[in-house]
Design brief:
alpha/beta; four-stranded mixed sheet; 11 helices
Length: 374
Amino acid sequence: MKLFDVYPVNNIVIDKALGSNVWDDKGTEYLDLYGGHAVISIGHTHPHYVKRLTDQLHKIGFYSNSIKMPLQEQLAALLGKVSGKEDYQLFLCNSGAEANENALKLASFHNGKKKVIAFRKSFHGRTSLAVAATDNPKIVAPVNETDNVVFLPWLDEAALEQAFRDHEVSSVIIEGIQGVGGIRVASESFLQKIRSLCDAHNAVFIADSVQCGYGRSGKFFSHDYAGVNADIYTMAKGMGNGFPIGGIIISPKIAASHGMLGTTFGGNHLACAAALAVLEVIESENLMQNAATVGGYLINELKKFDQVLEVRGRGLMIGIELPEELAHVRKNLLGTHKIFTGEAKPNVIRLLPSLALTRAHADQFLEAFRKEVK
């Protein structure tokens, strides 16, 4: 049997990792500024994380949600404390797509309405309604197509107001910083407008924080820069530092009932141990502040390059837009300088490193970038 060929891959085998570095099977060292799609939040194979998972595996790795799990309650309590959303409720699942699916479904249960407002260049996942709310027709199969999703221009307040006049809106889903869409930051005024319109029309404000959340922006949720609360926050990538886990936190105004949502693997013992380790390290090592400091440094230095069209982002979620003639830079960063980065079409380099990235690693990247663009 062969693998189903859906991933364009680099011909590199990574078999060791520590902090912000990885090594291939030939012993070559790389700087990881992508973290496997923003997943590595506290650094590869962090010792506290490894110990937490190992200790848990020696006790029990899995049982279903048919039993009481104190680990889930501990995770909810610590997540509430670190995020500042202590009065919210936690539902655990396995991935970002599942988190967004459950958020959209829960919103519709709550208000009995169907229409979802999403935005151009959005990415919310690859399953069912999550992919229908994703602005990429190439990954939307005919079976996923629905007239329940209304796409609006990014940050267009007039279009948003008109959509609420034209439709019975169930929910508005928005990334605080678009990832796949090119690291585009939602303005504070636009997020505040969503909040006021949702309040006025009994709609649910869903803050997709799968990529831009978990401290990456310098705040726990990048939406928090707007000074308003969403009704549901969705999470996944940085939540488990590589262990599959997702979740939504839900405003107290939304009531739960038995059977409303469910999952087999979500919130299992190992997943909770991984997520607890992540939050414990974020707290003990002050990683949100580090993301703000090192990310701010990177953004300021990158803005000094005349060859760069635009630098966007917050904290350690950074997009570097390059002209067509510099489209080769990302490839050379990996091939020549052994630095992993991400991309967004057509010519945006995405930086999504561990929140523990050091100033020295930032300088290592800047020196390599300087050589390539000059």
